[in-house]
Design brief:
heterodimer; A: 263 residues; Histone, subunit A; 3-stranded antiparallel sheet; B: 510 residues; Serine Threonine Protein Phosphatase 5, Tetratricopeptide repeat; Methylamine Dehydrogenase, Chain H; 4-stranded antiparallel sheet; 10 helices; TFIID_NTD2 (chain B); transcription (chain B); nucleus (chain B); WD40/YVTN_repeat-like_dom_sf (chain B); RNA polymerase II general transcription initiation factor activity (chain B)
Chain lengths: 263, 510
Amino acid sequence: MESGKMASPKSMPKDAQMMAQILKDMGITEYEPRVINQMLEFTFRYVTTILDDAKVYSSHAKKATVDADDVRLAIQCGADQSFTSPPPRDFLLDIARQRNQTPLPLIKPYSGPRLPPDRYCLTAPNYRLKSLQKKASTSAGRITVPRLSVGSVTSRPSTPTLGTPTPQTMSVSTKVGTPMSLTGQRFTVQMPASQSPAVKASVPATSAVQNVLINPSLIGPPNILIITNMVSPQNAASESSNALKRKHEDDDDDDDDDDGDNL
Amino acid sequence: MKGNETMLDFRTSKFVLRISRDSYQLLKRHLQEKQNNQIWNIVQEHLYIDIFDGMPRSKQQIDAMVGSLAGEAKREANKAKVFFGLLKEPEIEVPLDDEDEEGENEEGKPKKKKPKKDSLGSKSKKQDPNAPPQNRIPLPELKDSDKLDKIMNMKETTKRVRLGPDCLPSICFYTFLNAYQGLTAVDVTDDSSLIAGGFADSTVRVWSVTPKKLRSVKQASDLSLIDKESDDVLERIMDEKTASELKILYGHSGPVYGASFSPDRNYLLSSSEDGTVRLWSLQTFTCLVGYKGHNYPVWDTQFSPYGYYFVSGGHDRVARLWATDHYQPLRIFAGHLADVNCTRFHPNSNYVATGSADRTVRLWDVLNGNCVRIFTGHKGPIHSLTFSPNGRFLATGATDGRVLLWDIGHGLMVGELKGHTDTVCSLRFSRDGEILASGSMDNTVRLWDAIKAFEDLETDDFTTATGHVNLPENSQELLLGTYMTKSTPVVHLHFTRRNLVLAAGAYSPQ
């Protein structure tokens, strides 16, 4: 565009002069001066890559020097990888004919968001949480209860009595389909009734959340994250009566934050 | 040279020439009597002479049709029957609102206090012969939210301004200032509430045009806390803390060249130079799926007017039809000789038009993937396409600055609008098809009279048989207005439901 602002051909380095000549030969008359620099960089990178490959090939063939055959081979291999072009027309027509023969699939009604199967979507969580094993041993005086929450399905805690998982939590694990062995986790149950009000006072709304990493081999479908949360319930007696009446529970419930969002 | 695809295409396919029988006889005699058979051999080997009987064409007619890299279209290429009619609107129970209901019942009975059925399409109970059968291709059923949208649409329609040469629309221009990221694609939702911009830095940005801010859905744990039975549950699921005017979507690894909102405003599609088409959720503002199939830049993508299907076209010279729940394309439309620059659905969702760098526009049937129309005539790569709302006509714009109008049913060119001096990169018909708006890289928006352009079409048998129409030189009469911007190429045009024009472009000080 501003060819007048280009360095005059006499003062340009020889490579740049050559590049300008190439552009002229290809019929390109208007270009920004930066184009020459960009083309030179590209040329340098391409040539060094080819020569590096050629060196590898010649050393593989146990030759003393790099000769033209090595370079030719390097160019050929490089072209297959980087400078690909779209498939030829007859190939496209052929696959089009194959693909267009199948009738259009019928659409299932009432299927919510219509997305491909999960493994082709980008909706799985791409993180795992580290376990904090140390905390379990220091949570003396608390009733630790494992809770299972699967992905976006939040299973609310129904306080087990005496620490055995209630049918509710067990149903979650069967939905996941894993034989959840709870032996691997810290499962301390202490029921000092006198201490629980103290716990209640000291831990008003939040709870000690402990996330434990489950060995993925225990999990059936790989993209469902199971977080077990150790929560200290406030008062076992009052809890068990309220546990199932979720809609009436207010904010001072000892709910944890489920952070496995699979949206 | 050997691997160059364009060369291979030229060598293997024949260039199509249409010539009248008399002219052909003259040419043949001339070439053969000279005793120099070289040229005659070349002609026989590389040209496909499509002979028609009748008057030879005038130079003007020939000039109108030439330009494509493969010659003109053969006559039988444009003979297939095309269902260009619109699908019937489903009957929706419109709840009776006292202030809005002033429509008269067809039978002239007094207004009764019960929900009246929508009578938009019920006047013509019998099937329009040009419309495809309702179940020709499977379409998603209407959900309740879709029905509500349609009711809103109908209410807005009653307030629509009727446009014409004496009642031009106002144009509201959305300039993307400081778009140093390089604006490469724009789309606006049908109800004009959201604008999406695709940029060269591989981001997609969504803005809210209305004062209502963009919110994303609450986290799963909060969702379980809300009362699911309340009436405003759809507002309650939105997280107020995330309200903002702009949302940025990260995910692509190359400039975003195409963007399209779904008709139900739940999804946004974007196509990019990295070869993928991504589906984004507009409720969580995250990416849901990446559709891989083109391995080369995808230049354009569009959702079907009924949702669920979308089409994409790219550098690999094919257009692909996808459904959101299939990870592979359902149809591959192959046939173009060069990149597919532009892909659009017909309003009845049964056909897809593609405009290509080989200067042709092809119309493809979704049902079986066949090419049912080939339109030649542009002298440069085609960058914009739009269907008329009644489904009968197609307008195309290319780098030669002309807008060409095509009759789909007959397969003929019916109009040529000259005026722009640079690539026409956006086209849109008004909601009732009275005005065609065109936006170009020469920083102007031009309005053309579409009704006048399409009236008195000579479509007698001779014309349809040979495909030659005499184009009137009436571009000046059809031009209703030229509106210049400061130096902003007009990348996108959109008519709101009330026929206000929204235009979008990025300010490029030059």
